[in-house]
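Subject: Oxidoreductase

B.,
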Amino acid sequence: MATPLSHTSLSPFRTIAVVGLGTMGTGIAEVLARAGRDVVGIDVSEAQATTAVAALESSTARSVERGRLTEQERAEALARVRTSTDLRQAADADLVIEVVPESYEIKQQVFRELDGIVRPETILATGTNALSVTRLAAESSRPERVLGLHFFNPAPAMKLVEVVSSVLTSPGAVAAVTDLALDLGKEPVAVGDRPGFVADGLLFGYLNQAAAMYEANYASREDIDAAMRLGCGLPMGPLALLDLIGVDTARTVLEAMYTASHDRLHAPAPILRQLSEAGLTGRKAGRGFYTYEAPGSAVVVPDALTPRAGDTPVPGRPVRSVGVAGSGTMASGIAEVFAKAGYEVVLAARSAEKAQTAKARIGKSLARGVDKGRITAEAAARTLERITPTGTYDDFGDVDLAVEAVAEDLEVKRQLFATLDKVCKPGAVLATTTSSLPVVACARATSRPQDVIGMHFFNPAPAMKLVEVVRTVLTADDVHATVREVCAKIRKHAVDCGDRAGFIVNALLFPYLNNAVKMVQEHYATLDDIDAAMKLGGGYPMGPFELLDVVGLDVSLAIEKVLHREFRDPGLAPAPLLEHLVAAGCLGRKTGRGFREYARR
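Prediction pasted inline below.
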């Protein structure tokens, strides 16, 4: 019979065995050794064990070069690691962490063998991110001592560790492993047992949708990745990240998630199966969504799908002056962007007073830029001089490009486009900045739908580099070319997409945010743990609940409703908790309360 679990006696974990010395296992071994633990690294392959030692030597040498370790600390850490191909070498371990391939059969075999090898008080941890910890624990003779310990790759750099308990896990085991994670300098998040846990549970649904978006030929791989990097501040685009993780690994995780949830958003996109079965599993194979210099290389090389620079079929129309319709933050930001780039700008609002207020806002923005050294006082003054405020759209008569940034209401926009159709000269390009409404509906309000296109800027427009260029089925080629050329002149990164709900960014971002709300609604994890998991485990600049409160819960709900209405997928239905908060007037920072409470200004 196992001895009672004592928190205090277990927390030191002096000797730890790591079973499986791939990239993750080697990284975990390094983290443990640098924190003063004796590590036994075990792998069935002697060659893999040798490779792991070489990787440890190389990694710690880089740390010395960067001043993160002294030569003596490096030598001491390396001396704490020994490797073996014999699982019996785990006999004296206080904790065993397995990171063998994601297969129930392989992991259960390891746990069965460990049951007959380790001491009764030893804790067994699985590094899985896709399989059921409960199912693995149930196969063990010590289920109360089995839990999940999910590190993120690369383990030495990534701060997040998910500590996963099943209904069988002893609280003492969880507490002891949590203490260890803190001692390793990690930030542990306690979660229950479901596929993907918190970080991967949210991340892989998003990655899957990005793969499906690419497969549908909605946007190019480069544009999907650029949109999410520049529009959301993510360190990598989703398709590049799938290549890094491994397309086959992503498929395995998604299969497990779909089996548990039956949510169609988790059903692996067919392209993941096709690439996996063709052996095109990403960086490790030298080819996945992208092509790489060599297997294992991070260097992307051109292939048949790589767009050629300057490959434009038709030239754009000349644009010298721009009209911006609206008086809010987005309109004034867009006017500032065009004026900075040297365009003459007519800023029109519903009244001359509103237009003057918008120009004053631009003046303050430029003054802040001067204070921060981003623009000279002379350049700021010239920029402001290029902006002519007006209370009538009649002053758009000579503009070459008219950009509307009025309320996100289809009837309001349709009426405005009908007005622009009357006042703008023939050949002027008419653009909408809508983020969720059909561009073609704006186009059909005019007699020249071929001249209408979407230019979705991101807020704040002067700072955000991305513009989604949205073609309808009626948009003329030279209108598309015009907007691409203008984006280059205003130093924005343009990505092309079709006229469907959410375009690229919102169509991928808001289902992820909605799924985070569902996690809280189901009491699976707390707001703080989910935000921490996505920032520390996914490299997101903000956690989902921080972002929801900044965007506004009412705005978020409206976008989610549009996505659900267009794609008719039950998994896109807005989480009831979000609807309840909006109904209660808890809209985020702007009302002082959303998912969190904020101090009133």
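Residues 251 and 533 are 21 Å apart (CA to CA).

T.
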